[in-house]
Amino acid sequence: FATLARPTRMTRKSSPEQEWIAALPAYYGRRAPVYDEMWRRNDPVRLAEQARIAGALRALFRGRRVLEVACGTAYWTQFAAELAEHVCGIDASAEMLALARQKGLPADKVELREGNGYALADVPGTFNAGLANFWFSHVPKACLADFLAGFHRRVGPGAVVFMADNVYVPGLGGELVARPDCADTFKRRELADGSQIEVLKNYYDAAQLRGIFEPLARDLTIQVGDCFWWISYAVR
Description:
236 residues, alpha/beta, seven-stranded mixed β-sheet, 29% helix, globular
């Protein structure tokens, strides 16, 4: 997964959502050295679902120009780039991007840039596809409409979109934390140095995903496995 925006100085009038967004790059910067380990967990069900996700996005992006939001270490970028014409991956974490660049993806097909998922108009290029894997869960619910409107506007009507994220599995990935009078949930996680942090992390079932995306999409498909969900659609 990846991040939303570069850390910014928060004022007294900053909303909680702005503060959660601004905290993510530093968190993922600290996690970057061990981030890819989670894709190699010795769990046959998890690995099989990851392979299905990779296969689905490969097929969807054949010949497409893809804008990837929150590319992180480029784990999913590498699969998209196999059949896509071009992939531009953006992320807010310099540490994650440094690891992405070490993967040696073909420079004629893949561009990696520091960028803000809420300011996609700043990303140069022409696109007809969008990718946002393991990032949707980090979008505050109050910001979902704004993010999706900006994402869809940037890739354009008729563009194909693919997203994937985690299904809630009790006990995995830290303790789930709910806060009073808050629509969002959080995960309490321990970093390699032993410190703990609460990270915004929302989970969705098939009905909730359909309610969010159906008004915005054509040819919507929703898959929910034991570990992950993934969707694809065309922008209305």
